Amino acid sequence: MTRFLLRRIPQAVIVLFGVVTLAFVLTHVVPGDPARLIAGPNASVDTVASIHHQLGLDRSIGYQYWRYLVGLFHGDLGTSYALQDTPVASAILRALPISAALAVLGVLWEALLGIPVGILAAYRPGKLADRVTTLATLVGLSAPPFWVGLLLLYVLAFKFNLFPLSGYAAPYINYLILPSFTLGLGGAAWYARLTRTNMLEALRSPYVQMARAKGMPERVVLLRHCLRNVLSPLLTMLGMDLGYFLGGVVVIESVFGLPGAGKLTFDAIGTLDVPMITGAVLFAAFFIVVMNLLVDLAYALVDPRVRR
Amino acid sequence: MTAPPIAEAVPLAAPTGLRRALGSLRHDLPALISILVLVLLALAAIFAPLLASHPPLQTYQEGLAANGAPIGPGHGFPLGTDPNGRDVLARLLYGARVSLTIGILANGLATVFGVLVGLTAGYLGGWVETILMRLTDVVMSFPILLFCIALISVTGPSERNVVIVIALIYWTTLARIIRSQVLSLREREFVVAARTMGLSHWRIMRKHLFPHLVPTIIVYATLGVASSILIEASLSFLGVGVPVPTPSWGQMIEQGKEYFQIAPWLLFAPGVCLIVTVLAFNLAGDWLRDLLDPTAPERR
User: Fold this and answer.
1) Cα distance between residue B146 and residue A251, in whole Å
2) Chain A contacts of B147, Cβ < 8 Å?
3) What is the domain extent for residue B275?
4) What SS3 class is residue B64?
5) Nearest residue on chain B to A139, judged by CA atoms?
6) What is the pLDDT of residue A109?
7) CATH code where residue B182 lies
8) pTM of the entire structure?
9) Which CATH architecture has domain A92-307?
10) How much is the ipTM here?
11) Among A146, A278, A288, beta carbon nearest to B143
């Protein structure tokens, strides 16, 4: 286990370093001038130049990168261009709880909708329930989440008044149900498909034949024998999804007006707030890398074969 | 006694690729429908100028109600008008051009990147492989949409940039799959023989390895168009995709969302187009996978 850790953790650190470098290079080397955007279209060349100096954009790219890395080690992601004097890190940390709540609920929807539907489909392959769910999952995978969200808002919030239209206020859960459901729907379709495929494969294995030969009822074979083997890879994927969602889901947050990390990023785009955008990308990538690492560790703990 | 004519053996030979494909389509209704849909979509996109009754960018005074609200289907505008008084049907048809072109170009480019990286890494091995696969890990750790948004917000939204950015993030899955296939292919006798004959690495990759990868590439290129179209729609919806006057489905939904309470058709029409297109590409991809490469893993 120690050897596994010794190999896997430095790997994650290297990937993170690569992410920082690539994110910095892509947002700083690429054409586009935030100083011009801040100064406005009528600003003189001098004004733009002084803003350049203020932001440190007149220094060499290598120096800027070095400063960024040093700052990063001190937990400093720079200062937002648009929100005067607000450190990027604290702005993101403030928005993060909302994104985290959305992420956890979204993953819950994925699991609670997707896995039972997959089991149902695998129970009698080729029959009506299977065909209906197969079609439904395909539609679920093909529907753009922002459109599904708007549709749900139109029907459930506007026509039937069951949910608030947008924003985030006191009974928070009311404002989170629709967004998290929208977020989880695409994933649920994916998990239903995967559960079905893996269940069908497990149903063909010798231990299932054995269980059936012993005269186990089909329900016990499905839920006790198959599901256990199918569930563990699904759980690791759910873990990765959580990491993916934690950094903020821009589309969902902007449809439902949730002031999370995704919305923060989206607002930063309009003002070309490069430190904020870079910071948000880094935060999101950090969650992805760390969750992948945790999932791998959990896997290694459960399954000794992985520890090689 | 004459020997039986050789021609008799022909009916026993395996059917050609095309005939096999058409044969399997007969038994696969969803695939057949999806391919018909794709053909119709392509035709609609190509002949958009002939099919649309209005130009897509023209704003009409009579296209807005007295209170400035968009008007519903009928009244000279088959699918109604958008908040600027433009014909929704015309914008949908021209939007098909944009969505299909960007989806196909972006994914084509991503496929080229993926194959080049996967093939090179798998065949050459050593430090080249280490560097390329670590790079793949890094790109895979980026949150896809956030990364696209960040890049486009800095480079400025344009059709070209959307294509490049989607391609830059979407090559990783294919690169991994191609690499793992090449890893097993390169130990096979025909590759060893080619190497023994002194052929160049480039020639071995191009002439001996690449043909074995074509089925996989076709499957993933088709499935990938679906994801690329969805990403383009999301970017345009967020306002960092196709720049404004040019119609794109995602952007039409974005413009309709302020009015969805009084003009729900602004959401329905482009949304249904998006779902149908993406679904058709997904179904066609699944069909191709069953046909060409049944062992290929599922892709999200």
Assistant:
1) 10
2) 281
3) 98-294
4) strand
5) B279
6) 92
7) 1.10.3720.10
8) 0.80
9) Orthogonal Bundle (1.10)
10) 0.77
11) A288
